## 1
Amino acid sequence: MVSGGYEAETGKKAVSKKEETKEKKTPEEQKGKEEQEQPVIRVLLKTGGYTDEVHPNVAVSAGGGLLLEGAGGKREAKEGETVTIAPDDPLFEGGTIRVKTKKEGDKITISSLKRGYGVPSYRGELELFSTAQGIAVINELPLEEYLYAVVPSEMPASYEEEALKAQAVCARSYAYCHMEGQAYPEYKANVDDSTAYQVYGNSAEQEKTIAAVDATMGEKLKYHDTVVKAYYFSTSCGRTTNVEAWGTKVSDANSYLKGTRVEENGTCYEKDLPWFSWSCDIPVETVSNLFGLNTGQDVGTISQIEITKRGEGDVALEMKVTGSKGSAVIRTENKIRSALGGNGYKIQKQDGTEAASAKLLPSAFFTVEKRGGSFHIKGGGYGHGIGMSQNGANEMAKKGKDYITILGMFYDGVEITAD
């Protein structure tokens, strides 16, 4: 066991890494063993913009050609040839269609789909399900290869190597937990490729992110010998919080998600980042309309907004809104951010730039006061504030912290293990 012991700077028990004793193997033997042992994940690929679960049709191709096999027979596609499959394709015949590449190592391109980097290509195989609404597309592939397209989609490949390694361990742990169940049992799919789970395949694979996955191969975060969901978010305000922000009772099972100060010697790692602090002024009429639309509760013209309960890290847990027609209480960070979110105002970041308001307030780490005909909200950070701050991880890596130290900052008392 390699352990950093107790970190005086954070007052948290440092993460430890369990070193595996491995027999010496040739690189070929080791690669073969890893491929054989790798668990397989099944991912539902949503439509463009991640709006729907099923596609009107699916157009596929591969550089070395494809093999398509279903209950209704088999079909081949030549090198680079695109095959378009409709829901009534004879290959379905009451079953599914498996799509494989002829050439090992090829990817399957889905030209009927668009992602952030353009037309996406996928490792592994596809299984297509014909439904009354269209075609459900399931990408089945080894977990490590799945991570090749998760890490760059969740964290910029330009980030520091140690931050990318930390992200890889988090993403692997999170995926592993979801592989124990099926988000879409009708398709035997563990997850989908959207923000509902982890974004997969929205950015192209990069050498740096592949290297980060390979360097941490198999490594997951465990707490009390159980792999944990390693939640993460964009940017902290110098503090994180615990699961109470989601309305979940703090227990022994989730206490690895403990709030912490993201700092060293009293200096916040992210203090110079644009979203570290922000503010906005929302006119009374605007906030009154948004609150009604977002919550379905008509309190009339709002005269007062109070944060009536706070949690670890000073996050808002409960908000009371009083208006001309009554009052309402909103609980949990997501519902509070949603209640005050929407179009119609600007958010000023600390670097002087502005951002348009969005569906959610940037974070629930904020104060609010009425100033004349507007409500002034001053906050910090971006995201839910639970688990690892991705920008915090990157700033720590810039200061020479390795991924084990980074993970120890955000997850309390966990162990990194590849077993």
## 2
Amino acid sequence: MHSVFTSFSPRSARTQTSCRGPRFLTRNFAASVAVGLSLASAQAMAQDAGTAPGASANPSGAANSSVYDLLVGTYTGSGKSQGIYVYRFDTANGTITQLTSAQAVNPSYLVVSRDRQHVYAVNELPGDNGPASQRGGISAFRFDPASGQLIFVNRVSSDGNDPAYLALSPDGRYLLTANYSVASNPGGSFAVFPLEGERVLPSVLTVHHDGNGPVTGRQDNSHVHSTVFSPDGRYLFAQDLGADKLYSYRYTPDGTRGLFGPTESRYTLVKPGSGPRHMVFDEAGKHAYVTTEMNASVLVYDYDDGKLTLKQTLPMTTPGFKGKIGGGAIHFSPDGRFLYATNRGDANEILTYAVDASNGHLKLLNRRSTMGKTPREFAIDPTGRWLIVGNQDSDSVYFFRRDPQTGELASDPKKLEIGSPVDFKFVSPS
């Protein structure tokens, strides 16, 4: 692996490149950042948050409540959206009321702190038509769940192009973004940002991947699409759509081995031309599930101590399908018995899989039209009664009533019109 590791401070930056492997620049890093929570306490913290499988950064609160705040991230380039919207959603009857909105540029992915007091959003720039010299951003907001108010705090550079994903470290000390990067220079990367009080600080580490895949125009360079921590909190997986690799890194916040360092295996290869996009783990931490964007598949892996072993590959499309495809988001139901994934392109579907508890394998149960174009992200409310999916190119969000026992989605969803909706996060207001 050819990687560039860049350590930034507010006043200086230094870069080194090694073709033999990653090299860390951690000048005075251990001294400047105090050692925080142990991994054991970090795991306890994650468990206390009461989060659903594969959704550690979505602190929904107690699932016995029926009323939640629903945060919606959007694209703003068309002028139909202002940024982030907050709604009050009653899962008992499906009533939804807008509370407020906050202006932001292309906040296409959101993450909520575990104390529910802060919201972080990417600013996905420059986009397909922007200059390669323009960097994206990461914005921090103060959040009051009771009123739904968002107050802008600060914004820093994402140290890359087109940030498309956010993840909180298990101990809550760092925020990570995946810079997809449409432009070949600087190319795909992920960056690490310390969190201090209400603010997100400039990145202390940026990791660039060098590589490509066989699909010209889509895989000419690295495209890091997501960064996901393993359930044990010891590893980070970076899904690289451009290189057809699942990169793996050790997370050592005590500084004994650097903050992030490549594992012995460095990466797991996926089928050339498939384009891995998003990953989730089951609650037991024994299996990982990955969507591939370019050939629209779901990959099932056994997981053990930072290692992934492929066990199952399921195509999303029906046999003989000839249209455009685009595997997207993937999430578990709150009870972990069902897995859902979106397929864009001309399919525009959400698929429901049953999870075999004995081995983690999947069985396709059904597929449902998302009633619009380009479903990117979706979310299941903490009670499991509703699945909410946004159609980016139809300016619509549909609320599908869900049967928690069978996983089935009703055929008569409720509709909400929002300009270019992308991401959804539930938060308990109390």
## 3
Amino acid sequence: MKKVSCSALFILMGWLLTAPVFGQGQGVSLNKIIAKVDNYYVLRSDLEEAYQSYVGQNQTPPQKCQLLESLVINKMMLAKAEIDSVVVEEKLVDSELDTRMQYMVGQFGSEKNIVEAYGKSLEMLKSELRQQVKDQKIVQKMQQKITTDVKVTPRDVRRFYESIPKDSLPYMPADVEVGQIVRFAKPTKEQKEALRQRLLDFKKRVQDGEDFAKLAKENSEDVGSAQNGGDLGFAKRGAMVAPFEGAALKLKPNEMSDVVESDFGLHLIQLLETRGAEYHARHILLRPDYNRLDLTGPTQYLDSLRTLIAADSLKFDKAAHDYSEDKTTADAGGLLRDPQSGSSRLAMDGSMEYALFQMLDTMQVGSVSKPLPYRTEDGKSAVRLLYFKSKVAPHTADFKIDFEKLQNIVLTNKKNRAIDDWFRKSVSDVYITVDPEFQGCRIFGTTQNSAAQLGGGGN
């Protein structure tokens, strides 16, 4: 058995944990099984989708052998998780699925457009994505389990930096620190009332004998739970947003609420049962049409804040903390962070959101933009102020300036080595075969790699 390098794992991990990818039937050869790890398969379509995910983001893809190696390691983590009884809560899977579907609706404009793009029913797409999400969550949990004890000290970073010949130090692109204050467009009273009346109509229909689950499946805009008839499973107190939980806990089993409004939209809730400190509910969620919301109110609000900030009567970070409706950045004074590293320093290159890149290119460091309309990842209409906090010009890597980036590199290298060690210890626990077509990749040296033993994937 040859040693397998796991350095490709973290290159692909971001795609594995974030990409909402579906097979689109681009030819029967894509269904061929090219690798097998116990009962888990890697299809040619998996390899092509991984490759195209880089192309679609204007990034240089790794070699396909490297991608295949990452996919095989991913399957091995799933196989080992099964052996080691590593599981994830279904509620976490449902929550992530909901987020992914909302993101896709925002990207495609509507659920109908998604169906037309993929040529599959929404239920089939959700089913496929749900398994992907579950597998990705398990892989993430396995990765965390393997690397939980990996730590990096300043001495480790210094040693790494000094090991690089001075004439070989990389040239670092410009990076920036950016803050934002976000206000969401609000639906009008008329729009809310229309949604409220629809939910009240659903409530009456259930009271008259119709099935709540069927109505939820057909009408709820919480795409993660709709496929389960609106069922949210058991939730611990404090897990749901306050308006939802407050209304649910006032109900008796099988009783329905009045219409409840939360940050997610308007809900009709039915309590199914309680169990100690947990409760089991289902709901029908309706949201306003975000494409028709008026941006005048949030624009005027942010314009007033900008005036106070410009007059130095209010600091940007204080304003972001107190007034921004983007909860992911408000507590950090509005600072945007790299989703992979968690750093507040963002590379000002092709990986940056294009509209943000364009705006920063016209701003001076220390300035605050005028209110700018934009669309959030989950498709909501919003307005934001941008604060150009700082910029580091392109430069040769420097220990002090780039300490955080160097630290992340050292941490990633250590995690790779930890996974290498884990693989060498675990590889004998699973049965691995790779199609002869990829023997040149030297992924696994095994004498049992015929197409028949891989399950006879079609060509």
## 4
Amino acid sequence: MSSLSGRTVAVVGGGFGGLSAACYLADAGADVRLLEKNDQLGGRASRLERDGFKFDMGPSWYLMPDVFERFFAYFGHEPADYYDLEHLDPHYRIFFKDGDQIDIRGDREEMRELFESYEEGAGDAFEEYLDTSRTHYETAMEKFVYEDRSRLRDWVDPEVMKAAPIGLQLTGSMQDYVDEYFDNPKLKQIMQYSLVFLGGAPKNTPALYNIMSHVDFNLGVYYPDGGLGAVVDGVVELGEELGVTYETGSEVTSLTKGRDNFIVEVEDGARVLEPDNVVVNADYRHAEQELLPEHERQYDEEYWEERTYAPSAYLLYMGVEGDVEPLEHHTLVLPEDWDPHFEQIFDDPTWPDEPAYYICVPSKTDDSVAPEGHSNLFVLVPIAPGLADGDSIRDQYREKILDDIAEHTGVELHDRTVVEEQFAVSDFVDRYNATEGTALGLAHTLRQTALLRPSNRSSAVDGLYFTGSFTTPGIGVPMCLISGQHAAEALVEDAAAVTQ
């Protein structure tokens, strides 16, 4: 990147997008100060520590290792300089609520045979699907993810126009796409479960996201020792080496453009910063509607009301006595028909009657996250954003989920809990200023993909930029790392244009 020597930049929010942008900007020579509302860095990748238990509160899957390698390589490092990784095998276990159980492993031939055992011809279909997924992934990453194409003019490129018809499935739904390969409903669920992590449903997520099967089966699933919090620590340490200044417990309450600089108020004006540029990693809607004055907003409230938000979540963090066999490090519990659950998220918002959910048990891999003789686990149930989530419904749902776990996995948790915390819609609002309590950001629907997501550049205020899961390239830790680079590159490009 070009030099930003002598330029000051405030980064608002310490999620992965903000941490990434801070590193790139500091490397370019800027004086970078990152302001984080909460007492921890990492945004949704926060940690909860109680009585010897250490929980990742948010992301827990380490996917797309190539993105992390690329991020650290830019600065002359590799992930191993900051944290250790362990390949998980099985990648995850699935309990279907009809009593069936499947382990998804890293051996592709074994997985081919598994698919064939469920449906004649599905083994060949599996191979074809993954080969196509690999091609789509490599093309998408090179042409549409690592390259910031958040403006229409960015798509008027012969190479891009050539790439799209080659195989990127930009239209149609994942459901229709997967239906072309498989008939067995369980195989379809295996190929589509990761859509939950993209904040979508099979019916409303573009078929482009078949790339996630390459991520799942070909790139593998890993665990960073110490959890995803160890990755946060690694990126923060890198930023410190580059000269980034971090301030936690510093909530930005007002942001506006002055004559020569920005005016950033912290804690209702208790402190004021005047940086040359600002990069916002806070919730995009919150920043525009609550921090910026009306004349500096790109979008009105109607725009935000019309967006489709990714699910919120009901989270149950539990420290329990003894082990939790037969759960794996990553475990999914899926109903035979999951359409009603998606409908209760996107179409008729209510607490799901027959939920699909995820259980993470890091103590299966890492002894440091729980006291000896105990297990560390959390349960995540995707729910509609904006739901009322008072104590009464939470308590009812806790019993429902624990009963469901006991029935479908054989693990009884009711009387073994020594540490417990719950987290749901209102907590996402309070802790992260999350619009409607979304756990992820904007869903990856066809109308909210690529340049149809809010831009990294503000169209209303020169020198203001955005990063994170509301903008391009999208949801997830790897995407937010890349988003930070996009925001930083946009700032550098614009600063260079001004000085020419």
